[in-house]
């Protein structure tokens, strides 16, 4: 017997019983961002490797350890996209969407990172992102945060997440702060773990984002970036906070929040929860005003966020009654016995689908007597079974059998069924 194949480690199947929750989430995402005037953009999953090296940063964990990169037959270095922002910027530059324009865009799809699979984190994972271009004030930062807050309300777990915000300042202010931070950590190098020592020269801000409990004290005592902000960034952040308060959006200023990608500046934010263990971030974003010019376009202010859908699905699964609400069970099962009945029943079922597009019909396939068909109808979860045999074909009628209620089976003309079906299953 041939060896059975299995999915690649960290790349999971979404089975039929799980798909309704994903479809529900995707629908909520589309409708929420559309209500704010955002338009969808779709990018390829393969990009030139240098796009991510230049945007994310050569010394980030993503580029150093996690990217799926290969040389294709044309000897080009290609990478499966590890995140969406760089691809979105590349597409905007390439197709002339950004210069002297304002854009509100969103995307959704698979991303790829070769990290250790764990709860809510996979090597192929699904991400939803929103990106804005051409807005330099804090009002667009607030809009993105408010849009994500509205999504949590709609999904039903707004009380289980916390908004954390910070400002990284201008690129110049951040570089000056890095020097101060490096000096502080050098003085306390014996308290740093191996990863932090490695990052000390290349990416010292990432040390502030450590999850190592043994380093919390040394990180807490580190110089605060907010004390070294340039005046313009400080004003930007103050207005952001006031606007959030005006909208009634609660937040916590987290001075160690830096984000893991090099392109961020000024506003950064994360929505975090305690419901998922150590990996508690379900949405993160901020400003990246220098990225467009860094990737070859004209200087363009930009801000956005991304959320990992697997983690949000885990949040949804914890809500009471969510799976019953999203049941994929059919509403009506059509039983047909005999060639004439199959032809007549198929035609009737198509007419019913035209008349009632929101009702789920399933036609019996595979033959068998009525007893066998009714067993399948019952297993389908349908409310009603419509039964058509030779006599029903001759009389243009259909027998209606309730599967979930104690009601007498009845016979209706097919014309009456077309007008009364909604009342029958209500």
How does this model look, in words?
There is one protein chain. The protein is an alpha+beta fold. It contains 16 helices and 16 strands. The protein has helices at 19-34, 49-56, 61-66, 85-94, 138-155, 171-187, 194-202, 216-220, 231-246, 291-294, 309-317, 322-325, 339-355, 370-379, 390-395, 414-425, and strands at residues 39-40, 46-48, 69-71, 77-80, 103-112, 124-133, 162-167, 252-253, 265-272, 281-287, 302-308, 332-336, 361-363, 384-388, 397-402, 410-413. The strands form 3 sheets. It has an 8-stranded mixed sheet with strand order 1-5-6-11-10-9-7-8. Helix 13 (339-355) links the parallel strand 12 (332-336) and strand 13. Helix 5 (138-155) runs parallel beside helix 9. The longest helix has 18 residues, at 138-155. It is elongated. The two termini are 51 Å apart.
Could you give a short account of the major beta sheet?
A: 8 strands, mixed
Low-confidence stretches: none
**Strand arrangement in the largest pleated sheet:** 1-5-6-11-10-9-7-8
Distance between the termini: 51 Å
Itemize the secondary structure elements and their pairings.
Elements: H1 19-34, E1 39-40, E2 46-48, H2 49-56, H3 61-66, E3 69-71, E4 77-80, H4 85-94, E5 103-112, E6 124-133, H5 138-155, E7 162-167, H6 171-187, H7 194-202, H8 216-220, H9 231-246, E8 252-253, E9 265-272, E10 281-287, H10 291-294, E11 302-308, H11 309-317, H12 322-325, E12 332-336, H13 339-355, E13 361-363, H14 370-379, E14 384-388, H15 390-395, E15 397-402, E16 410-413, H16 414-425
Parallel strand pairs: 1-5, 7-8, 12-13, 12-14
Antiparallel strand pairs: 2-4, 3-4, 5-6, 6-11, 7-9, 9-10, 10-11, 14-15, 15-16
Helix pairs in contact: 1-5, 5-9
């Amino acid at each position: 017997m041939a060896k059975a194949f299995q999915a690649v480690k960290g790349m999971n199947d979404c089975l039929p019983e799980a798909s309704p929750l994903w479809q529900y989430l995707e629908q909520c995402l589309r409708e929420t961002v559309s209500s704010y005037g955002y338009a969808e953009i779709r990018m390829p999953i393969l990009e030139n490797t240098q796009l991510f090296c230049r945007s994310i940063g050569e010394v980030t964990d993503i580029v150093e350890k996690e990217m799926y990169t290969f040389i294709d037959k044309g000897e080009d270095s290609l990478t499966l996209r590890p995140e969406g922002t760089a691809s979105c910027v590349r597409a905007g530059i390439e197709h002339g969407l950004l210069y002297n324009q304002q854009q509100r865009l969103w995307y959704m799809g698979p991303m790829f990172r070769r990290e250790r699979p764990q709860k809510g984190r996979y090597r192929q994972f699904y991400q939803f992102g929103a990106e804005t271009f051409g807005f330099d004030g804090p009002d667009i930062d607030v809009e993105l945060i408010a849009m994500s807050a509205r999504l949590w309300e709609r999904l039903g777990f707004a009380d289980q997440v916390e908004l954390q915000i910070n400002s990284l300042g201008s690129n110049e202010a951040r570089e000056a702060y890095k020097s101060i931070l490096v000096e502080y950590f050098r003085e306390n190098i014996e308290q740093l773990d191996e990863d932090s020592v490695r990052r000390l020269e290349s990416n010292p801000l990432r040390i502030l984002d450590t999850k190592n409990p043994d380093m919390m004290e040394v990180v807490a005592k580190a110089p605060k970036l907010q004390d070294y902000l340039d005046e313009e960034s400080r004003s930007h952040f103050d207005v952001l906070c006031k606007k959030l308060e005006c909208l009634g959006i609660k937040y916590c200023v987290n001075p160690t929040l830096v984000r893991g990608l090099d392109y961020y500046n000024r506003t950064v934010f994360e929505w975090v929860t305690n419901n998922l263990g150590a990996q508690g971030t379900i949405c993160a974003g901020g400003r990246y005003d220098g990225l467009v010019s860094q990737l070859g376009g004209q200087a363009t202010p930009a801000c956005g966020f991304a959320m990992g859908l697997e983690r949000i699905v885990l949040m949804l699964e914890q809500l009471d009654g969510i799976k019953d609400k999203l049941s994929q069970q059919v509403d009506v099962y059509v039983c047909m016995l005999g060639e004439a009945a199959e032809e007549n029943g198929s035609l009737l079922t198509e007419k019913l689908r035209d008349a009632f597009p929101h009702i789920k019909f399933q036609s019996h396939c595979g033959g068998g007597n009525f007893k066998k068909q009714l067993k399948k109808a019952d297993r389908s979860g349908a409310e009603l079974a419509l039964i058509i045999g030779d006599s029903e074909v001759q009389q243009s009628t259909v027998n209606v059998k309730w599967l979930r209620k104690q009601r007498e089976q009845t016979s209706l003309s097919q014309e009456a069924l077309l007008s009364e079906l909604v009342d029958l299953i209500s």
